[in-house]
Amino acid sequence: MDLEHSFMHVLDELSGHLEQFGEERQGGEEGQDDAELLDNDFFAYPPANMPQAEEWEWQEWNKPEIVRFTTDPDRMLADNVLSQDQCDKLLELTKHCKEGDGYQRKAPHTYNELFEGLNILDAAKKSQEGEVVPELSQLYVNASRRSRDAIAKEFNLQTPLYFSYTHLVCRTAKDVVERRDLSHPVHSDNCILNEATGECDKVPPAYTWRDYSAILYLSGEFEGGDFFYAHSTKDLSPEETVSPKCGRLVAFSAGKENMHGVLAVTKGRRCAVALWFTLDPNHKEATFSMAEEILHEIKTVS
Ligand SMILES: O=C(O)CCC(=O)C(=O)O
Ligand SMILES: [Fe+2]
Question: What SMART domains does the record tag this protein with (predicted)?
């Protein structure tokens, strides 16, 4: 076992034991200093008094790198959250995305691109029906959890961060020569912007319970499609742009302090896992646990 793997092994054990609160931690590889491992580890989060993931397959995962903390404490960016192989597998899963999925109301996306999605429960159900290899849906779950844990740790959250909606999405350029539109107009994820006044009202039909948002990108093999933060609710021009690439996670608090959008995807297909989180247990995504249960059942039966 190399160092990275033995390290992950120790954490694997640890996560299992933390789950049963108060239980003594066991094991650790011979010759390694546990305290040091914990100090150095990106995933010493969540602390013992918070809910832990049930089955967490650490071994496959690289250690992510926080590459940039902008001057804004409400924003983070991490690379290496997924390996190339994991991105490729999730891209394989995007073949099951459905056009327009996830938007009952008028979708905000441009007509000049095809928008497709697959939510976490539909992915698990497809595995149950034998349409999708279970490993792919499990990877979708694990990648989402890993993103959630990274965000909670980096934003130093003291209460649990719950999934509120999880969506594997792709935006594919159509054959349109001149584009002046955005792939996704500037918006906030929990309030409705009134462009005339610059007010962003945190009232229904906005998803007012969303506290944090994240996008985990699966590739950079397309043209256009940069994510950007706008200056403010009154100046929607890009302040800071981020180019998607495999394993890059962008995350931010979901309010008006982080107005954001996506530049036009002018060529190719841009896929990502879009994640929204809440601190309010009443708005916890029930479908996430349902997906986990289905996948657990599949594993137990097979
Ligand atoms: O895909 C992205 O980079 C951002 C998408 C977004 O902001 C959203 O779906 O609310
Ligand atoms: Fe958004």
Answer: P4Hc
